[in-house]
Task: structure prediction
Amino acid sequence: MTSSYLLFLLSERIFGVKLLGAIEILPWRRSRHVPLSYSYVEGLIDYRGTVYPIFNIGQRLGLSRPGPIGFTPEASDQADKKQSIILLEEKQVTFGIIVDSVVKMTKLEDPSLSPVKAQGLDAKYIRGMAYDDEQEIMILDFERLLHAG
Amino acid sequence: MDEATRFLILSLEGESYALPITRLLEIMASHDIQKDKTLTEIFEGKLEFRGKWIPVLNLKKVFKIQGKPGTALLIVRSDKGTMGLLVDAVTEILDTAQKPAPFPKGVINPSYRYYSGVLRQKDNLVLLLNEEGLLP
Result:
């Protein structure tokens, strides 16, 4: 079966997310820091009347290191301002993820649920591999990604 | 349901937090706080308030925010008991008809019950504190 996917870059790798609901792409902006939140939570933003939690999925995937523990408002300021925020909706839950850049939206054959070997990142968050021409794309499993633990 | 609700806006190292004003008993300068070694690190000490000893929380310690303890002392009533809260300052009383947005899931360990929602104040997001969840 084919579905719509949004492809994006994160640490020079291409990832994909299946599009199930509404989507918005925003330039990077500072989010409201939440003390004692999970380390991969960048904070909260208000967009058109909705409060979105913003997840640093690169960190969650093990692609970048967590910042110092505790309250560091400057840490967000050091973020790469060229990054984008993708606002997604999955199963009526809205959230945002930080990506290096958005590649494109495209139709892809859904990945089979075979185990994936992904070098240098936490494979349990990858649902499977999809292919765009010859290009290998790792499709993210948000249910696992956004479930702490 | 549309009647205005009032929230106390307080600041900790430049970031804003809110408390329902109905929970506030008094605002005072921090003084007469007695050290109590039986209390954990998040407490600044205890204070005699209206003839009773109440614990005083250093809200920065609760949230692991660096900086000196705040100098404004809020006396807050919660279902778990009355407590003192040390904060940097009370910046505003927010009179608003807005209903706080629910606090998003997946942000914080669900066993931490520090926040009960999110409020908008001009262009800022303000974290609404759950006074019951502050005490251990």
In short: The first helix of chain B runs from residue 59 to 62. The radius of gyration of chain B is 15 Å. The first strand of chain B starts at residue 5 and ends at 12.
